[in-house]
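Hey, quick one: can you model this chain's 3D structure?
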Amino acid sequence: MRYLINPVKALLSLFAFILFLFLFVVSFQSHKIIPMVLYAVLSVVYFLLLCHFTKYLEIDENGVRNRFLWKSYNELSWDKIQEVGIANMKVMKNAERTKVGELYLYFSPESMTEKERFHMCLNWPPKEKRYMRYSVKRLKAVQKYWEEKPVFAWLKEEAYLDRYFRR
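Sure thing. Here's the predicted structure for all 167 residues.
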């Protein structure tokens, strides 16, 4: 199964890219040089962001891997994965870990301590781990291959359950 790493940011990047491309064309037709250059630069920036956010995470019986267009890279097999967890991006002013921010599923090749998980959340996105935006559907797809319970990074289990299962 393939999942966009962050579909919300991919959609927002696509919208901004189309908007700035349209504004570039309008300023080009009206021969306004400074806005044309500005919109061209912004179009390129949002195109690069769009390329970044339209990467996929592919999950199957062999493991997880990143995919962009036709190229697959950063493969991590299930026997090399030591930890699957849910990372909370709301780290600041959340000492009790009860506030739920943007959540991500991550796959780590090494087991981490609580302090390492906190630093991972602070320095998101991690370069050596695979990750994707969290949803219950995505967690269930992962649990087809990963039997263990996910680890919560900077998140209390009660807060997670309240947000996603006890509405």
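One thing worth noting: The longest strand covers residues 71-77.
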